[in-house]
Amino acid sequence: MVTRRGSGSGGCLMGIAFVAAAIVFGWPAARVYIRAYEYEDAMRQTLLHAKADNDEGLQTRMRASADSIGELPDAAYDIRVDRRDGVIRLSATYTDTIKFPVAPRPVTHRFSVERME
After folding, report:
1. Sign of the torsion formed by the C-alpha atoms of 83, 85, 87 and 93
2. What residues form DSSP beta bridges with 92?
3. Mind spelling out the 3-state secondary structure of 12-56?
4. Low-confidence residues of the chain: pLDDT under 50
5. Rounded to two decimals, what is the model's pTM?
6. Which residue in 89, 90, 64, 87 sits closest to 77, CA to CA?
7. Is 21 exposed, middle or buried (0-12, 13-18, 19+ CB in 10 A)?
8. What gap in Å lies between CA 58 and CA 81, rounded to an integer?
9. 113 with 89: CB under 8 angstroms?
C-alpha cells in the first residue's frame, strides 16, 4: 500500500489551529491599527477645512470624527492645532491597548498631519 501525503488528519488540524490562532491574536491588533488609520484619515479630511475654520472649529471637527470612529481613548480627543509660516499642523498622541487573550499590550500612536494654508 502506498501512503499519500496529506492523508493524515494531523495536517488539517494544524492548519485549522493556525488559522484560529491568527484570528484570535490578530483581530484585536488589527482593530487597533484600523482605528489609528481611520483617525489619521480623519485628520487629513479635517485639514481640508483649515482655511475656513479657526482652531476651535478644527478641534471640534476632529473630536466629532473621533466620536464616530469609536472606542478611542480619551487622549485622542486632545488635538493640537499649530499655524506657522503658512503651514497648518494637526497633531495628537494617544495610547491604545491591544486586548490580547493572554496579556494586553499598550500601543502609542503619534499623529502629525500638515497642509499649506
Report:
1. negative
2. 111
3. HHHHHHHHHHHHHHHHHHHHHHHHHHHHHHHHHHHHCCCCCCCHH
4. none
5. 0.83
6. 64
7. exposed
8. 8
9. yes
